[in-house]
Each structure stands twice: as structure tokens, then as C-alpha cells.
Amino acid sequence: MSVIAPDFKFSKFIQSLISDVVWFVLIFSLIGFPIIMMVLFFIPMPVIDGELLTPFLAFTYLADPTRTLPIVQSFMMTDMFKIMAFPGFGFAALLAAGTIFVERKMLAKLQLRVGPFYCGKVEGILQLMGDGLKLISKEIIIPAKADKPIFWAAPVLFVASAAAFVALIPVAPGWVVADVDMGLLAVFAVIGFFPIVTILSAWSANSKFPFIGGIRALFQMVSFEIPLILSLLGVVMVTGTLNLSEIAASQSSFPWILFLPVGAIVFFITMLAELERIPFDLPEAESEIVAGWLTELSGMMYGLVQLGTYLKLYAFAALFVVLFLGGWNGPQIVPQFPMEIVTEGLELGPVTAKIGGLEPILTELITPEMINGVLMFVLKTVGVIFFILLPRGVFPRIRVDMLLNLGWHKLIGLAFVNIFIALALVYAGVLGPGGLQ
Amino acid sequence: MTNEFLPPGLALQKADERIMTLNVGPQHPGSGHMRIIVQIDGDYIVACDPDPGYVHRGEEKMAEYRNYITNIPHLERPVIHDSCNVLYPYVLGVEDLLGIEVPERAKYVRVICSELNRCIYTMYWLAIYGIFLGHSTMFMWPAGDRELLIDLMEKISGARVTHAHFVPGGVRNDLPPNFEEVCLRQVNYFEKRIREYAAVFYDNPILISRTQDTGVLSREDAIRLGVTGSVLRASGVDYDLRKKEPYDVYEELDVHSNVMKEGDSYARSKIPWLDMLESCNIIKQALEKMPKSGSVRVKLKPNPKGKGLNSVYKRVESGRGSLGCHIVSDGKVEPYRLKLSVGSFRNLIALPYLLKGEKLGNMPSVYWSLNYWPVEADR
Fold first, then answer.
1. Based on the number of CB atoms within 10 Å of its own CB, is A44 exposed (0-12), middle (13-18) or buried (19 or more)?
2. Which residues of A touch B362 (CB under 8 A)?
3. CB-nearest partner of A394 from B20, B139, B200
4. B231 in Cβ contact with B222 (< 8 Å)
């Protein structure tokens, strides 16, 4: 029962790409260049290496890699780059977008349908962009009796909390936005912030269905935070540190899931509940309470909450990887760079243009170890995300009383079992100080 | 104005800080074309008042202005997924009024169409039951597999949903050539597919723990409230009109009626699934016993008239239980009065009794397990 796009032709696709490029070049050269020149003309330019930085010189910088690369390198070492681009928000948002696409297509295959197909010509890869554009262009409707400042602030706070969570995750050795010594405590603090944002949003909407959804979310998140924290205590005991980078580094020979499988299972289940994924999607139970605490959110406010949800999903999966699956550790599959590229530069293109000055970047920032670490981390995270998405196709939703029963009776008991296992490992001298590591 | 003259939901009530009134519907993903006024105390439902009537279309009144043949296309509108079964009692009644004897082959074709339509309706119902419980795979699978039988009905009647295939005196057209083999193949595959649903849905531990022992309707209450169809049989009453009051050729076929003792919403949701398997069995039997050739329709006079002042009541087992049609004729070309008595409305009566004291999370499963179709109840 597959559907084939009726008038898809590869030549037309290429044609549309070429026309896009032509329009971009045209608009950029007509509008972009004059603006850049005007800005450069009016701003007093600094003196660099005894030369006044004229617009002409600025353009030669662009063409001369030996002069540009140090700027790039210093930019990559700033906090701004870390927060916005690589280990921080941009990287997480990219993975979250990939997650949404994979979720849609995987669920579609599971349910014998096609999924997003038309948007972006190839298997609907631009569907997310289309949905985002739709959400941005929609009107934001606020209930008349809502508490407006709090109602406005809640989605932004939600994304901010999710981004704060992302900032604590170490992706590769040294590549973490906030390398806190009390990293795991900071994670607990950020997780504790989500129920507050949820109930603020739900209560300020002043509507019945969001209120019920908010109360359910509060029940669920607060009662699952206790097994969540308890299940991670085992890892802290065997490593003796709260720093997430150190916890990841301590698993260079084996991941903790081999010794603490009970803790990993408890953490995975609580993770599903904290993320409001099926079978724990009670706060958004559609057939009972419309969309739960999201009912009154519209337009980009809803879009922000969705963005925050998927950032949170990435962050939880990454936390699972860092704590139980060894973070960036793994076999070195990325080969060392050839020496002539590092020392002499890269030759590009049919007309040979040498890019020199790569040595500081390739030896300090982007080393083969770093690329390998990121690759391992991403592969493991994607695996965990897959298992988070899978229950959506298999399970129905459970009920509030069953949920609380699970959280308070079973998971807390199992978390204590995990703590005793960790204690036994430490006191028997298998792990911890004086043991295997 | 006292309370009893006000429409439900507007009635004045004593204010109670703990009680919250929720209007589930008519614009709600879990209600259908109706409203359920639910009063909750925390997570428990203390009172429930179903409020149907949002899609009332006056089918019965409309039938008084059309003759016996032109009534056919609009009488099937209440349940377009089950259109053959909705027309069935009307057609049987009109044949009784006009005194027509139906050919043998037409009776078998009717049984096949009726059973196919029962499966088509039940698959749609099952899809919605799945999504009401948050099981999106169980929404997509029945919606897709339903196409197999819709294709068969399209081959028979030319229309995918509203077939208008039953006419007084038989069926509109004969079966297409080579139909028996195609039908047997599709039905066999369909049966194999719906057996797979057990693994993903009916044996799912979360589903069982969620729906077992919720909304229990005891045998005595089921009889007292007058529910019909799968709801009645889930409460342990063996009452299937195909067996108790066989019409057309059902007495020549081996019909097994499925009964469960529990009376909870799990049993109520499982009975229609068992019924689908039974329908596949009946279709196979009917294909075997059907006369291979012969007329399928008795030629009627234009504008047939009933004989004098006369009334007839016929009922059949539809996808939602007993479906009766009372036709009163005064000797004219139109019926004097036509009354449809539908299973949906009878089953809805049980809802306030079942939901009282339940948790809010059980509302969708109990409500939809009643095998209720809002449009049919309003008519």
C-alpha cells in the first residue's frame, strides 16, 4: 500500500535546486554585498599586524586560510560556540530533529503505513521544517482568563530548563558546556524544575483539562524523581564522584551497565515516565483530557514545548549513555590524520589550493580521539533513543493508580536493590578505590 | 424553572468545592458526536450524564415522505460502515408487507454482505478503541486491514461505504464473475491478520491490567438495563438473534455465538473480535452452500404499496446488537410511520451505571467498549 509521488522527476528536482541557488546568489549579491560594504565603510576598523583592516583586507582574510583559521579556532574555543553550537543547543537540536524524523518513519513502518513522504522530495525529510513553519505562522490564542505573564513565560522556561539539562552533558573529553564538579546534583536540580514549569503552565491557563493534565504531570514527575535519584546513587558509589565527565572517563574498560543492570532498568523506566512517553503519557492522554497540560497552548508556544520535550529526550538518553554505557569510550575506529595534512595543509579541488595552518586546530581541538568520542557517543545515544521510541508502537497507556503503584512500590524497591549491589561491589573490593579501577 | 425542565448540564446543583464538572464533548477527541457530562471528585467519577442528540437527522420522519424504494439510500446513513445491516430489517419488513418471496441465492448473498459489513464496522470500532487506549498501532492496523473487505464490498455493490445493495425482493445486482475465489482468498487472509491482533493488543499485559475488572456489568443488570449485542453477550447472556430468531438462511448455517462471563470492559472489547472470526466462518460456509446460479431479485411493480392498514416489526443482529425496524403501512406508496430501534441507544443506557465510581482514566475504555455509535443512536 505504498504511495508514489505522482510527478516526481529527478531532472525537475535538480532544476529546482539550481533555481534556488541562482536566486540565493542573486539576492545575496544585490542586497547582501552592499549592506556588508556599507557596514564596513562606516565602522572604524582596527589595526591588525600593522595594517588597517580595510574591507579589501577583510575579504583577503576570507580567501587566505592561514589568516582565517586562527580566528575560527579562537571562536571555537569560546563559551558562546560551546553553548550555541557544538556540545550545547545546536548539536542537541540537530539530534532532536533527527529523532523526530526517525520516530515518524519508524512508527509508520511499524504500523504498515508510509509516514511523511512528500515534503523535501526524499522520504519527507523536510516535514519537520514544514511543521515548524506552520507553527510559527499560526496565531497564538490565549484564554481570556489566563494568567498571561506566567502563561507566556512557561514554554520559554520549559525550553530553557531543557537547554540547561543539555549543557551538563559531556559529549567528548573536554567538550562540555558546564563542567560542574557536582554535575549529577545539578542534573537532579534541573529535572526538579520541570514539574514546576508544567504546573505553572497548566494552572495559569485557567482551564479544566490543562489543570487535570498538570496535576497528573506533577504526580508522575514527583513520584518518579525518587526512584530516578536512587537508581543513580549506585553509579556515584562505585565511581566516588558526581562529575559527569569523570563518571564517563571511569568507564574506559567496561560500562557500568554490566555491574548495575538493575539500576539501568529502573533509570530507563523512570526516564520514560519523566519524558511523558507512551505508556506513561498520562499528562497528555488524548482521549481523556484532550491534550493534557498542552491543551491551551497554540502556535509557536506549543512548538517551543515540543522542542523542549525532544531536547529533554536527547538529554535523558545522553545521561543514560554517560552513566551506564560508557559515554564517549569505545574502540578507536577513526584513523589518525595523515601527517602531511597536519603539517603542510590540505590540497583541494582540481585547481590546487593549499589550505595551510591546520596544525593548531587538528592537534588541539579536532583530534581523531575527539571525533571518535563524539561518534561513539552519538551512536550510543541514538540506540538509547530508539528504545525510548519503541514502546509507542507497542503499548497502550496506563492509568494513574497503576503508575503510582509502579513508582512507589516496585521501582523504589528495585532502586534499593541496586544500591545494595553497588555497596557489595565496593566493599568486596571488586570496584571502587583499590579494585578494578 | 425547576431542575427537571432544564437541559442536562444547565441544571442548578448544590455547589461543592471538591466536585468538578467536565464537559467531555461534543468537541473532544474522546467523545464522538455527543457529550458526556462527567462530575469528578479528584480522579473518581461521581456522576455521569450522557447527552446524545448532536447528529439527529430525522431519518424516521424523512422515511414518511419517500416511497419504499427511495427510502433505501437514506436509511443506511445512520451507520454508513454497517449499511447492509441497517437496511436488513427494513428490507425484510417491506418484503413482509408486500408479500414477496425472495430467491434462495439472494438470501445467501445478503448473508455474505451482512457478515462482511459487520466485520467492516467492527474493524472501525476496534481502531477507535485502540486509539482511545493510546495504542496507535491498533488504530492503524484495523484501519488498513479493513480495506480488504471494503474492496470486496466494492466489487459486489460498486460503492465503498454506502452500498444501498439490499432492495425489497433480493439484492440489487448479482455477484461479479469469479467472486467466490476472490472472496475466499481475502477472507482467509483477513482471518489470519485479525488473529495477529491478539499478540499485540488482546494479550498485552498493560491492556489487560487496564481494562479487566473495570466497568463491570453483571448478568442481572445487563438484562434489567436492556443492553443488546456484544455488551449483553459479554455479561454472560447467550442471546444472538442470528441463532435465536434466525432470518433468511441463518438457520441453515452453523452459527456459534460468543459469550463471556466477566462483563468487564475487556470482555466487551473481546467479544466483537471473536464475532469477526465467527463472521469469517459464516462467510466461508455461505460461499460453500450458496446456489451457483439463479435469480437474485424479484421484479417489483413500480411504486409498490402496502396492503391496507398493516404493520410489521423485523429485527436483525447488527454490529452493535439487535436492530429493529417497525413499519406501519396505510396502503399508500409511502410508509405511514417508520421506527428504527437501534442497539447503540440501548447500550448507551448502561453508561451512567458503569462509570459511577470509576476512575477518569477508565472513561474512554468503558465508554467505547459499549459498542456505541453516536450517529446511529441519534438517527
1. exposed
2. 399
3. B200
4. yes
In chain B, residues 239-268 whose CB comes closer than 8 Å to chain A: none
Q: How far is B145 from chain A (nearest CA, A)?
A: 10
User: Which residue type does A121 have?
Assistant: K
CB-based contact, B48 to chain A, within 8 Å = no
Q: Report the C-alpha gap between B100 and B65 in whole angstroms.
A: 23
Which residue, A130, A208, A156, A170, is CA-closest to A318?
Answer: A170
Nearest CA of chain A to the CA of B113: how many Å? Answer: 25
Each residue's pLDDT tens digit, A83-123: 888 888 888 888 988 899 988 888 898 888 888 888 877 77
Domain with B162, as residue range(s), is 62-340
Cell numbers for A359: 596544525
In a domain, B18, yes or no: no
- B29 and A290 within 8 Å at the Cβ level: the answer is yes
Q: Do B135 and A281 touch (CB under 8 A)?
A: no
Domains of chain A, residue spans = 36-76, 140-336+359-427
The reply to whether residue A288 touches residue B210, judged by beta carbons under 8 angstroms, is no
The torsion region of residue B178 among left (phi > 0), alpha (psi -120 to 50) and beta comes to: left
- Candidate from B144, B206, B361 with C-beta closest to A288: B361
Which residues numbered 87-126 in B keep a CB inside 8 Å of some CB on A?
none
In a domain, residue B314? The reply is: yes
Distance set, CA B168 to CA B62, B67, B88, B337 (Å): 19, 12, 10, 18
Q: Identify the residue whose cell numbers are 468545592.
A: B17
In this prediction, residue B1 carries a pLDDT of 44
Could you give the percent of chain A with pLDDT greater than 70? 89
Give the three cell numbers for residue B190.
483477513
Q: Do A281 and B134 touch (CB under 8 A)?
A: yes
Length of chain B equals: 379
- Domains in chain B, number: 1
A272 — phi, psi (to 5°)?
Answer: -60, -40
Section A364-391 average pLDDT: 87
- Residue B228 maps to a domain: yes
Rounded CA-CA distance A393/A398 in Å is: 14
Which CATH number fits the domain that encloses residue B290?
1.10.645.10
Across the interface, whether the CB atoms of B136 and A107 are under 8 A apart is answered: yes
Instruction: Give me the mean pLDDT over the B159-179 stretch.
Output: 88
Tell me, what DSSP letter sits at residue B50? E
Side-chain half-sphere exposure of B286, counting CA atoms within 13 A? 27
Greater confidence (B14 vs B55) lies with B55
Beta-strand relationship, B166-167 and B44-51: unpaired
Grid coordinates representing A202 are 497548566
> How high is the pLDDT of residue B121?
92
d(CA A398, CA A251): 36
Q: What is the pTM of this model?
A: 0.82
